[in-house]
Amino acid sequence: MGSVLVAYASTHGQTETVAEYIATVLADRGHDVTMKRITTVPDKTVDDFDAVLVGSPVIDRAHLPAVVAFVERNREALATRPTAFFQLSFAAALPFEWARDGDRAWVSDLVSCTGWQPDRVGRFAGAVTYPEYDRVTRLVFKLVSLVTTGDTDTTRAYEYTDWNDVEAFATGFAAFVAQQEDLERVSTGTARGFARPAATIAFLLGLSGLAYWLVVTRSAGDRSDRYESPTRALQPDHGPADQ
Ligand SMILES: Cc1cc2nc3c(=O)[nH]c(=O)nc-3n(C[C@H](O)[C@H](O)[C@H](O)COP(=O)(O)O)c2cc1C
Question: One Pfam family this chain carries (predicted)?
Answer without folding.
Answer: Flavodoxin_5
